[in-house]
């Protein structure tokens, strides 16, 4: 079940340092939203604040509202653990658990959510998730091998399988292809195109071609200078951002005039 | 293109450029490695050569009159009993302390606590011995009595309970406190190095803090904890002073932890008897030392084997 995310007046801090200021945006369900911008502009920080992973860092905190289909993620009685169970995340560097087999990696999240699962049920879940991540055919004969025995691209798809195995409402991806070669990148992009029928996907990317290829909407983050907070400069349909952006800064960035 | 190809002459052996710094470093590292092996071999050779008279002597000449096996067996039981008890008590405690310091305690408390625990390792073992004798042993007497009454069906608490508390149980607990800082220091170090990458992976899947620790920290730290436990076990096996002070030993082999007659341990037995030993007695004591050497070696090899068994899944690849 894909859900819509409404962000209003979001300020994100590391201790006393304001890293991202005043974000207002509405992220559509069943679509891919790309976030682009120069390094250090706060797009990853913003992404991590959507599933409350930001506050994992000591001193990090958030002001403002993030609402997912009417559910305020930062209300005092919202449990960050529950939020993260609904909003999955794929990281920049593939991070399968090295001490677990491929099989155990896929069911890791489900073992947290629902301790008792029949063998047949979890077998079925593993196959479904790995097929969903286009990895099944490559690993079906070695599910008991460690996840770290796979190539980087395969590891990243394993992480996607792990994230979708718990059937989240939203999938956040923090530069999921930046550590991968072009062929693995293509595999992941194809996968994202399939997944968007069922999930709300938000992806941070440094690769503007990738944003143009995969996303429906694009947000451009920028900052005025070092030590200044990052801001969401423009949020528009991807076509518009890459052909006729509203802001001069966006045009400069996508045409490579700075950044 | 012609198909024939003259066999290409093998390229002249490429000689890697060897820089002075590299050579000095490689040489000194190699030298250190060889040095430790030499020391070990020297100790082993000394033990074996000094033990041979006892190994070959007729049974009547060995103190106790029951041969070397009869002499050493109770000591082995005593040594293992005290050390294993210490390990069983200290390891879970040390892991708990290490997890608290690395993942639960507020930062300021964590730093202080780590420092205090490290201080435990700096206390001389003779102090532990007197503490065990003067404080812990009397304090544990009621527990001894209770264990004999209510847990007497276990061979470890068969009783009758010692009235002084100078038992294997007390020794095990003193040893546990002594090895606690070793195990917890190493556990703390490996736990704090559990990669953020995997900790965040667990959290992003909706793990609670404890579940995150179970998924990403404990498996990663497992081999380190085992290594720390083995270091601690080595210390407990070889501990001399504290055991010699606390334990009223010298009896035959028994599993009874709370009785007034306990087997001594190898190291404390050597320390207590050596000053007055002459002739074959000395050789017998050295032979028992050789046994301790072998036990420690075996324990370390076992630990290495446990750590390597699942090397594929260690996260080191």
What does this structure look like?
The complex is a heterodimer of chains A (259) and B (317). With 259 residues, chain A is α/β, with parallel strands linked by helices. Chain A contains 10 helices and 10 strands. Chain A has a 6-stranded mixed beta sheet, with helices on both faces. Chain A is globular and about 55 Å long. The termini of chain A are far apart. Chain B has 317 residues and is mainly alpha-helical. Chain B has a single domain (29-313), classed as MetI-like (MetI-like fold). Helix content of chain B is 70%, strand content 0%. Chain B is built from 10 helices and no strands. In chain B, helix 2 packs antiparallel against helix 7 (209-238), helix 2 (67-104) packs across helix 10 (280-309) and helix 4 (125-150) packs across helix 5 (168-192). The two termini of chain B are 45 Å apart. The A-B interface holds A 51, 53, 56, 58, 81-82, 84-85, 88-89, 91, 93, 95-101, 108-109, 112-113, 145-146, 148-149, 159, 162-163, 166 and B 107, 195, 197-198, 200-208, 211, 215-216, 219-220, 222, 312-317.
CATH architecture heading of chain B: Orthogonal Bundle
What is the annotated CATH architecture of chain A?
3-Layer(aba) Sandwich
CATH fold node name of chain B: MetI-like fold
Overall number of strands of chain B: 0
**How many strands appear in the DSSP assignment of chain A?**
10
State the assembly state of the protein chains: heterodimer
| Name of the top-level CATH class of chain B | Mainly Alpha
CATH superfamily of chain B: MetI-like
- Which bin fits the share of residues in helices of chain A? 25-40%
Question: What best-fitting shape of chain B do the alpha-carbon axes yield?
Answer: globular
Which residues of chain B sit in consecutive blocks of at least 5 with pLDDT less than 50? none
Low-confidence stretches of chain A: none
């Amino acid at each position: 079940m894909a859900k819509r995310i409404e962000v209003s007046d979001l300020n994100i801090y590391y201790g006393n340092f304001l890293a991202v200021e005043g974000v207002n945006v509405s992220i559509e369900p069943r679509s891919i939203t790309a976030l682009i911008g120069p390094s250090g502009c706060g797009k990853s920080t913003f992404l991590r604040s959507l599933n409350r992973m930001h506050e994992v860092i000591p001193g990090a905190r958030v002001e403002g509202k993030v609402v997912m289909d009417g559910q305020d993620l930062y209300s005092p009685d919202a449990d960050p653990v529950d939020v993260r169970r609904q909003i999955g995340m794929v990281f920049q560097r593939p991070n399968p658990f090295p001490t677990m087999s491929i099989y155990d990696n896929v069911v890791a999240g489900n073992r947290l959510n629902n301790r008792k699962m029949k063998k047949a049920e979890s077998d079925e879940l593993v196959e479904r998730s790995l097929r969903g991540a286009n990895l099944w055919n490559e690993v079906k004969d070695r599910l008991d091998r460690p996840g770290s025995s796979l190539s980087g691209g395969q590891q990243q798809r394993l992480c996607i399988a792990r994230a979708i195995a718990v059937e989240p409402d939203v999938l956040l991806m923090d530069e999921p292809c930046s550590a991968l070669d072009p062929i693995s990148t293509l595999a992941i992009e194809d996968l994202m195109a399939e997944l968007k029928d069922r999930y709300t996907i938000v992806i941070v990317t440094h690769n503007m071609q990738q944003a143009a290829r995969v996303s429906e909407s694009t947000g451009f983050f920028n900052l005025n200078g070092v030590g200044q907070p990052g801001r969401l400069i423009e949020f528009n349909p991807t076509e518009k951002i890459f052909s006729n952006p509203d802001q001069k800064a966006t045009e400069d960035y996508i045409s490579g005039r700075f950044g | 293109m012609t198909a024939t190809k003259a066999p290409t002459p093998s390229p002249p052996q490429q000689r890697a450029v060897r820089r002075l710094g590299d050579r000095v470093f490689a040489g000194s590292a190699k030298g250190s490695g060889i040095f430790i092996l030499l020391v070990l071999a020297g100790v082993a050779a000394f033990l074996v050569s000094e033990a041979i008279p006892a190994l070959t002597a007729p049974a009547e000449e060995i103190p106790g009159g029951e041969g070397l096996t009869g002499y050493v067996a109770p000591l082995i039981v005593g040594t293992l009993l005290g050390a294993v008890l210490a390990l069983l008590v200290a390891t879970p405690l040390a892991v708990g302390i290490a997890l608290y310091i690395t993942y639960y305690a507020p930062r300021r408390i964590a730093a202080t606590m780590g420092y205090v625990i490290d201080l435990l390792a700096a206390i001389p073992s003779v102090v532990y011995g007197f503490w065990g004798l003067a404080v812990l042993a009397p304090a544990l007497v009621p527990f001894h009595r209770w264990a004999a009454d209510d847990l007497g069906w276990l061979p470890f608490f068969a009783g009758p309970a010692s009235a002084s508390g100078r038992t294997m149980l007390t020794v095990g607990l003193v040893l546990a406190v002594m090895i606690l800082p070793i195990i917890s220091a190493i556990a703390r170090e490996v736990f704090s190095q559990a990669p953020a990458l995997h900790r965040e992976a667990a959290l992003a899947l909706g793990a609670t803090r404890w579940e995150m620790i179970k998924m990403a920290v404990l498996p990663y730290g497992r081999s380190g904890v085992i290594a720390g436990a083995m270091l601690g076990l080595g210390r407990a096996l070889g501990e001399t002073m504290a055991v010699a002070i606390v334990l009223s030993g010298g009896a035959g082999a028994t599993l009874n932890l709370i009785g007034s007659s306990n087997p001594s341990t190898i190291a404390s037995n050597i320390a207590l008897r050596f000053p007055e030993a002459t002739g074959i007695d000395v050789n017998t004591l050295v032979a028992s030392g050789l046994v301790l050497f072998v036990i420690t070696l075996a324990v370390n090899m076992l630990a290495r084997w446990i750590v390597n068994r699942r090397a594929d899944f260690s996260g080191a690849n």
